Structure formats: C-alpha cells, structure tokens
Amino acid sequence: MADIGSDHAYLPCYLVKNLKIPFAIAGEVVQGPYQSAENNVLSEGLSEKISVRLGDGLEVIEPGEVDCITIAGMGGALISSILESGKDKLYSVKRLVLQPNLSAISIRRWLIENNWELTGEEIIEEDGKIYEILVAEKGNPIRPYCFNRELELLVGPYLLKRKEEVFKKKWTTEKKNWQRIYEALNQASETTETLEKRQELLHKINLIEEGLNHEES
Ligand SMILES: C[S@@+](CC[C@H](N)C(=O)[O-])C[C@H]1O[C@@H](n2cnc3c(N)ncnc32)[C@H](O)[C@@H]1O
Q1: Nearest-CA residue for atom 3 of ligand 1
Q2: Ligand 1 pocket, Cβ-based, cut-off 6 angstroms
Q3: How far is the C-alpha of 113 from the C-alpha of 146, rounded, in Å?
Q4: Which of 35, 95, 155, 157 would bridge 68 by S-S if both were Cys, CB 3.0 to 4.6 A apart?
Q5: Confidence (pTM)
Q6: Percentage of the chain with pLDDT > 70?
C-alpha cells in the first residue's frame, strides 16, 4: 500500500510490523515529516519493506506499484484533489482508504464522479475527536445511495443506516453550530448574502433533522 501524507509513517510501520501487508510506500510532500518518517522506518528496522519518498500526492508512486492507497488526516477537498491529480496512478489500485478531517462530502462526490464505489464507512471517537473513515473499491458508484442522495452524500450512506451514538453526537453538534450561526445571522442586517447564507443553513439543519429522525422501513 501507499500512505500519502504519512507524516511519521506510523500507519505503514504498524501494518508491516503486524504482517498485514508485505510492502509500503510512505509519501510526504514536506521535508520535516518526510525526515521523521525516514527516521522512524530506520529505527524500526523496516527500511527493506517501507520505502519513504518525498513528493506531492500520488507522484511518489510508480504505475502498478501498489493496490491500496491510504490518505488520512487532511481535509476532504485536499484528499480529493490529490486523487484527481494522480488519476493515472490509480489503474492498479483496488482499494482506497480515506480519512478526512472535514468535508467527507467532497470525497463521496469525487468517488461517484470517478466510478469508485463506497464499500464501507466507520465513525469513531478517540480523545474527544471524531474520525470518519471511507473505504472505496472500483464498482458501481451509486449502489450505496438509495434513500436521499443529498443527505447520504453529506453524512454517509452506511453511517446513516447504522446511526451509531458517535454519528448522532457528530451531527447533533453540527446542527447546533449551524443553528447558532443561523440565529446570529437573524440579528444581522439583511443583505442578499446573509439571506442566502440563512437559507442554506436552514436547508442543512432540516436535512440533518431528517437524517437523525429517519428510521429504516
Ligand atoms: C495531519 S498530517 C496526517 C498524518 C497521518 N496521515 C495521520 O493521519 O496521522 C497530514 C500530512 O499530509 C502531508 N501532506 C499534505 N499535502 C500533501 C500532499 N499533496 N502530498 C503528500 N503529503 C501531503 C502533510 O505534510 C502532513 O504531514
């Protein structure tokens, strides 16, 4: 696998040490994190199995070199733009594992536009932070979306079906934040911009309420 934006290379080191994968590439675009990835791989004695490479996005991979790519700990828009610019490296790739810090919606949209099927989603809370993990494979990109596409793109079709406690916590908090902004905008003088923003927020608030209240029939 290739872990893009690997920072300390913790993920490739863990996977190789625990015999989950035989070989990994740790890609980094910034010199400091690249050096710390290099140092960790060396000190773990894994240099034969993990290749640490300096470069932007998927440019560190040769075509056909890996069958899985992970990109974690960045915004969804940045993850999508890394995938978009490196499309020519994706032919041999069977699985993408993506962990956006925000805007998972950008990734779900990119996957649909590029014929990747979202095959799984996880949501977890650790040290007070909530993380979403998206897994995709080549397939039918619209298969997971069967209820309300706009809502499912925002919150995740599998996560919506399961509605775990962490999921409810994340979206209840988001909804409260949007309501706070909506009320603040109600106090502000009305311009076309504030009016549009309020309408957009109200739409999102209603969408989330629908999602939280929706029960599978
Ligand atoms: C917050 S860290 C996440 C590290 C690790 N993936 C994790 O989840 O803990 C994001 C890393 O992505 C790197 N990065 C950002 N844009 C990148 C790009 N276009 N190509 C490669 N690495 C990138 C940054 O230098 C940074 O080290």
Answers
A1: 73
A2: 4-7, 27-30, 33, 56-57, 72-74, 82
A3: 17
A4: 95
A5: 0.95
A6: 99
